[in-house]
Amino acid sequence: MGNFEPEIVGLCCHYCAYTAADMAGSKRISYPSNVKIIRVPCTGKVDAIHLMKALEKGADGVFVAGCLEGDCHFKNGNTRAAKRVVYVKNYIESLGFEPERVAMYNISAGMGERFAQIAGEFTEQIKALGPNPVKNIKSNHQAAGQ
Amino acid sequence: MITAEQKPIEEIIEYIAPYDRILLVGCNECVTVCAAGGRKEVGLLASALHLHSLKQGKTVDIKEITLERQCDPEYVEELVSLIDSADAILSMACGCGVQTIAGRYKDKPVYPAVNTKFMGASESQGIWAERCKGCGDCLLGVTGGVCPVARCSKQLMNGPCGGTSNGQCEISPDTDCAWRLIWERLKALGMEKRYIEVMVAKDWRPAGGGGPRRIVREDLT
Amino acid sequence: MQEAKDIQYESSIDKRVLVVGGGVGGIRAALDLAESRRNVTLIDKSYAIGGLMTQLDRTFPTNNCDLCTVSPHLSQSGRQIYLDLQPMTVLDALEGEAGDFKATLLTQPRYIDVEKCTACGECQKQFPEAVRFTPGLDPRAPTCMRYPQATPYAYSIDMDKVTDKDALVQSCKADAIVLDDEPRKIELNVASVVLSIGAELFNPEALDHFGAGKLDNVVTGLEYERIMSASGPFQGSLLRRSDQKRPKRVAWIQCVGSRGINKEDVPYCSGVCCMYALKEAIVTKERFAQEIETTIFYMDMRTYGKDYELYLNRAKNEYGIRMIRCRPHSIVEDADTKNLSITYAVEEEAQPKIEEFDMVVLSTGFRMNSETAVLAEKIGVELDPYQFVKTDHFNAVETSKPGVYVCGVAQTPKDIPETMVQGSAAASMAASNLPAMADALPEEELIPERDVSGEDPKVGFFICDCGMEIGGVIQVSEIVEFAKGLPRVAVSQAVGYGCSSESMAVIEESIKTNGLNRVVIGGCSPRTHEAKFQDLLRRAGLNKYLVEIVNLRDQNTWAHLGEPDKALQKAFRLVESGISGVLQTRPLVDHTLPMNRNALVVGGGVTGMTAALQLADQGIKVYLVERAPVLGGVAQTIRKTIEGEDVGAFLNQLVKDVTAHDNIQVLTRSIIVDHSGMPGRFQTGIQTGVRMNYMQLDHGVTILATGALPNRPAIYGLGSHDGIMTQLDLDTLLDESPEKVQEMDQVVMIQCAGSREPDNPNCSRICCQAAIKNALRVKALNPEASVYVLYRDIRTYGMYEDFYREARNQDVQFIRFTRDTKPDVRVESGRVYVSVFDGIIGRTIDIETDLLALSTGMIADDETTEDLAMMFHVPRTSDNYFLEDHVKLRPVDMSVRGIFLAGTAHSPKTIPESITQARAAAGRAQTMLAKQEINLGASVAKVDGSKCATCLVCVRACPFSIPLINEDRYSQIDPAKCQGCGICVAECPAKAIQLMAFEDDQILAKLDGIFGGLN
Question: Distance from A31 to chain C by nearest Cα, in Å?
């Protein structure tokens, strides 16, 4: 488990977290390369199904990162996203998955350091949980297929 | 509208455990509106079932389809082409839909994925409340448009019980006392007199006391 | 480069503007004109445009990397169809008059065919010393590309330095070397000329006492920038030249060659050096080590720009940058350590101090060179005594020659935002010699869009190495190979700098010849470059939404610099994600609405009136809304400028012109009460006239010119005695009752009264010159009068320094105080007394005065800006001025498109500065009004009516109340109003709504790509 490198997806709002991630890069602040970002126009666009499908497809962790509370470009997309994240946490918990595999963060466009910190913390959290059990099966199946 | 809520996932899992190929059927009517069994919920449940089975070390084949209305045979007929490739059907419609499917596809097991709750109205986004018991003999005309059958916890017909406190029901402080609402409404309409008219005992036969009910419109049959 | 002989300039319909000089000011002017659909030719004597800014490491006050902010602008210059770029070209002669000049251009041989050069760098490998550009630290070389994102993206050769010409020709695989290239002369018919010729930086080697050019560890400010720069000589490491070690103690010496009267000095202030020294000191601490001691030796700290005082406070308080008020005489080097010692004095102590530093930076300012004088002579524009281009008093971009305008440092020393403002203002003025707006050139015609609906996806993958930025961390070729193996990828290729015009042409060609119908770019962030590649697709005949940008730089190689293996693995995943995502893209149509070509100008002061006139002259209908009963604003209380110009006469003429103009509807006694609509189609409600009647104005753009308020704080006894007044009161007194002033023997002025204080932390910018103006006027009336100016820093930036010197020559006494030793004012027996501690003589002096003038400056009009900020949804600064979109690059644009900002509503400034900003705002507004349509984009929510359950969830969830259930019983979302957030999409229980360009299947496909290895 020591060399477990989790696959992490960040669904990031164009206006804040995505920009913050760019800024972390432009300031050369490093964070784990495990984190791969998909850009959305607002976290309000992130549907529960996206989080579920990410886990289903093999993500060890998924996070949604939107604007600071009250700063949503579209008024309340981030608070709606936060509620959906809670919903998905409960849902996957009832399926026997750790709710910590899913998380919501709020961050502003200027917070490059904070983005890197979040990425680091979340990666550590997922490392501690170990691999998404779905993945073993997938790779077994794949091996069997070959 | 008929309201429903998804069943605990454990219960659904137990139902479908023996099967490898599931036909998951949503309904685009009431259960869509109350966010229990529309296209979106079908997708989420399918994903949840995939996650679960993968975790168990196996894969399950789930076909997703959402019918316009599961309580009409013609719409249910649309499943014909899919039915042979499924071992079981999981319906996200209300009980009416589940039964329509069961009636049509007699050799396939059908399981409900939702609990049908009540006839209700939307109070605001995400909140639904019971408004009608389907008693078959509507008395809203004399109670100022507020139903004591559906909204009084004790279904009292002649004013509130002694348990009402600050206008709320003693069963739950989140519930308005129906008789308080009736009084306020009648007062606002200047119909206070109605309130003191004694209602005779309600005839519960149209409410189903006489067995399953049907409506037959001869002119339409 | 286009062949000069192929360009037909003769046609008079095709009249154009000539912009001379491709620094940021010239680029801004050229872009504004091109965006307004006016033909423009941009020439630069150098082989690539960009000017001084491209050599800076980071810029104040944002401390951002310049190269990254300016390069999209530069390559933008390359792609505009109305813009013709001619590098290595100078203006040789100008005949004729405004509206009909004949310009003769002279182009030097480049010896490289720009069209063929791929910037592969082979020629540079043969001449290894060739490529670097680090002034003062690296020798120039025969082939030289100035910086990685150069425009045009091609090398150039100094043929005199090439020893083996055959070898040079051999080295070029693209056959781009042109040995027989020769100078060319082009004649151009132009309507107006914008001079953006910049200035040079003073070379301190001319001074013998600072050791520049002799001592290894003495560098100029610009050399220090290059040392810190990632593209500099030490690849972004801060190292001493003598031993390549990181310095522990760095000192800056300000005003080197400026504000002096000695040999080689110029008397004026260069205006930017205080800020750049602060920036360099901050960046030193921020980027390299907090422990590096930074010390700035200065005369006056001139942080007079918008929020610059806050920057100074941060430098002192947060970064602990040491400020010593002293102008050191010389620098002495230790022969062994190469350390440098500086002898200096501080006011509090009698003995001079000696201190050692590891590195000393000389803050050198701007100088005009002899080339300017030659050019000025040739084209007939006058210069001022310091060889800067002389301009009209009230119009700082108008030269002595009608039809010739100037912007940037060539007019007077200034920083980047002010240069940007002047660039836009000069463009706006230059356009006034062209046919009016309505007759501007047609919009660009594009080849028809190819219908790809029946085609199988055919993906082209192009990866940028971005120089070392991507290619230096991961093997680009491995990714090319990887992408080749992915399904439906027809082309996979590396393209160097993908955003260079050269690579863009390669991609365009590949789309056409290979019949690609999807494109994936592996490069930098889509935030900055998506629009550019979308335009590229459209030009190639593809719908612009069929492209996906994979962020391999900002979110990969930059972030995982130290882990190249992991970065490569991540790149594979990101690329696969991009490719699987692009397969799900579909052609989309941008929604458009017709543009409303009216303008609303809020505020009828000098700024608002100037902007209104500028637009009205271009045939635009302008509503000029003023809350007061008359036009004029604060300028009505100002009598004279420091140069002695009559403000009243100027103002009267302006009011007359505005009132008489057919295209301007003046609405006085009017306040704004509501505002709605979208950029290009705004509706603003006003209440107007004595009876406050409601009226709705329809307009496409808005200029906010609401001004600021003269400050009148109740300090220093203001309001308690007739003899205590503000500088504005004194201005009036001098004008109306000079005889009263004539009788005064003692006059005291106190600077920063109510400014640079915790409750109003910024500098009011105008007060130093206002005080000196009035001091000189008092002296003119009564040369015997004693005038004392009590100050904290004298901030007579630029040429205002002349007046400061003149005041000292005329014996005006300047006494410095600090925030801790503020003067004390008392009234005894009807007389005013001021006591102040004079640090130089070390004791408190007490002055009985006939008049005390307080330099109270300006404060923001808090109530007005608050109301308008709320209605127009625009941000404000912490001290309640309006906040522009980008303090550096978009100084008059607000964050809401179509809203522009000018004058003192932006920050305190002088009348001429406000006027320039007004013209800039008008110019920027024209770039928008030139368009026939408003593009609303395509990323809007779209309902599939057959799936809709009419549940009302979208109606309830939409933050902007756009969806409605229509008569056909499904949800309808007006694409013109949809903001594209996608909230309804995620909420819809029937999955009947999709957000275009972010469809669920696309997001899921991207997830598939990320986990491609697993699925």
Answer: 6
